[in-house]
Design goal:
26% of the residues lie in helices and 27% in strands. It contains nine helices and 13 strands. The chain has helices at residues 3-14, 16-23, 55-60, 88-98, 137-144, 179-185, 191-194, 224-235, 262-269; strands at residues 38-39, 42-49, 63-72, 78-85, 104-105, 112-115, 118-123, 126-131, 174-176, 201-209, 212-220, 241-245, 248-252. The longest helix is centred in the first third of the chain and has 12 residues, at 3-14.
């Protein structure tokens, strides 16, 4: 039965919510496996679809398919899980969510990190999780040529480049594109003020300060005029510290009903400056763990 007819029947029988849940399950849209049968000296064995954690977040990030394969190789048996999303921004957001707290970022790379037995990486619209083996650049370069529907989708977002590195808690970065990710990663921020209906996206991270751990969220809006409107709304929230620069609005929310320490917030907000010529790139080179 054609896919569109299955969806139409599903809508009539179970309603839109059930169909959305089914589409967000992570199962590939066709029988074609994501993982190649032969990848250099690695031979694929068992392959199975994966149900991504946090189905609502997966759907909000534009998740398309997820699959796990077992490979037999001269390096031994290892597992490889791939998540395919709509674009590079969504992949970075999923990578930030998926990597464990103890992952160690690869030197000079935005979206590669390792644990003692695993590697996590994002490339274009894919996120990878390897267990039992940690591939290096030659293996990954060969893999990229074999994966279906890999696309850059506009490149990586620049927001993370505005985050101050000093005192940032490792792996606390979270990208926010809608109400569900906002609820998960920055619950103190009211959805009505965030402005996703105006095209907002945000990058959050947590910082260790003399006044305790603080959340910093940087929102980006389509124009400085839209940002100015939301700056006013954020400024009405009692105890918050807010700064606008160009189309960016950075906020340090008051959490647990307590006003933010002004000096600690100022140290986080002062370095954030919008520059029309600002560019920030991930190192294209992967580094040995």
């Amino acid at each position: 039965m054609p896919r569109h007819r299955e969806i139409a029947i599903g809508v009539r029988r179970w309603g839109w919510l059930a169909v959305v849940a089914a589409l967000a399950s992570g199962a590939p849209a066709s029988a074609q496996p994501m993982w190649p049968e032969k990848w250099r000296e690695h031979q694929r064995g068992k392959v199975a679809p994966v149900t991504p954690p946090e189905a609502r977040l997966w759907a909000e990030f534009g998740g398309e398919a997820a699959e796990k394969a077992i490979y037999e190789s001269p390096v031994g048996r290892f597992s490889a899980t791939a998540y395919r999303l709509k674009d590079a921004t969504s992949a970075l957001a999923w990578y930030e969510y998926l990597r464990p707290e103890n992952a160690v970022p690869a030197r000079g790379a935005l979206s590669v990190s390792t644990t003692p037995g695993a590697e996590y990486a994002a490339h274009q619209n894919y996120v990878f999780q390897f267990e039992g083996w940690r591939p290096l650049e030659p293996e990954m370069a060969a893999l990229y040529k074999l994966l279906p529907r890999m696309r850059p989708g506009g490149g990586l977002p620049k927001l993370i480049g505005h985050l101050l590195a000093k005192d940032r808690r490792r792996n606390s970065e979270r990208y926010i594109v809608g109400l569900h990710s906002l609820e998960l990663f920055a619950p103190a921020v009211p959805g009505a003020v965030a402005g996703f209906e105006d095209g907002a996206e945000a990058q959050a991270a947590r910082y260790l300060t003399p006044g305790g751990e603080k959340l910093l969220v940087i929102f980006e809006y389509p124009t400085p005029q839209v940002a100015r409107q939301h700056e006013v709304e954020f400024g009405k929230l009692v105890g918050w510290q807010v700064k606008r620069t160009g189309p960016l609005v950075a906020v340090v929310p008051a959490e647990a009903g307590q006003a933010v320490d002004v000096a600690a917030a100022k140290a986080l907000l002062d370095p954030i400056e919008w520059d029309l010529e600002f560019t920030w790139y991930e190192s294209a080179k992967r580094h040995a763990p």
